[in-house]
Amino acid sequence: MENFSVFDIVGPRMTGPSSSHTAGAARIALMARRIINREIREVNFTLYGSFAETGRGHGTDKALIAGILGFEPDDPRIRDAYEYAKERGVLVNIIMSDEPTRHPNTVKIEACDEDDRWTEVKGESIGGGNILITEIDHLEVELSGDYPTLIIRHHDEPGVIAEVSHVLAQLRVNIAFMRVFRHGRGEDAYMCIETDTEVTEGMQEIIRQLCKSIRQLIAV
Question: Is the pTM of this model over 0.90?
């Protein structure tokens, strides 16, 4: 039996004409903002496929800007996203690309934060407001944003996954899905852990203290 999300049945709450081009775009950028987890001062959005061809007409550019500013897909301020970005001093560049991609509704987000650090996030709007984050800093990942999620960057070495899983079990946090991605053996790796309940800030600090191999932990 095929499973359907609430977005598939009733559609997302959103401002704009298209669930894929507006709500999905806003959700991708909002997820990117949470992954970056710092104030953003400059951002480049590269739109591909249908996003590039019809994006401006559907307000995809405004939705992306709104999401990176922290606005939800149903926020009426999406219509004035350019003005809000200007007010906050966020430099925005919109780039339309004809380069072929796996999915027609794809965007690459390159953002510079307040510490002058650049982060790259690539995402796809897969229909009905649903999204998939497919890359973080050129590392292939798979994040839907449908569950509370921990993104953990660590060194690829034996025991790290078991260590983190054990601490979550002690905190009574149930893992819904876990995926591990790495650049290569012994290099940087990411754990993407989707949980049934929110992992509070206090829990996150316990994980950091007990799991010494973690280099970065972000809750999105």
Answer: no
Q: What angle (nearest 5°) sits at the alpha carbon of residue 48, between those of residues 83 and 72?
A: 40
Domain check: are 127 and 176 in the same one?
Answer: no
CATH of the domain at 113: 3.30.1330.90
| Residue 182 CB contacts under 8 Å (≥ 6 apart), including other chains | 139, 156, 188, 189, 190
SS3 110: strand
Compute the distance between CA of residue 20 and CA of residue 137 in angstroms, rounded to an integer: 24
Whether the CB-CB separation of 12 and 73 falls below 8 Å is answered with yes
State whether residue 14 is helix, strand or coil: coil
Distances (CA, A) of 45 to 6, 51, 60, 203, 214: 28, 11, 10, 34, 30
1 belongs to a structural domain: no
pLDDT tens-digit map of 39-93: 999 999 999 999 998 877 879 999 999 999 999 998 999 999 999 999 999 999 9
Please report where in the chains the tokens 């249908």 appear, as a residue. Answer: 50
Report pLDDT digits (tens) over 125-177. 998 889 999 999 888 888 888 889 999 988 888 899 999 999 999 999 999 99
Instruction: Indicate the residue among 124, 143, 162 that finishes a domain.
Output: 143
40 found inside a domain: yes
49 and 125 in a common domain: yes
User: Within this chain, do residues 129 and 25 fall inside the same structural domain, yes or no?
Assistant: yes
Number of domains in the chain: 2
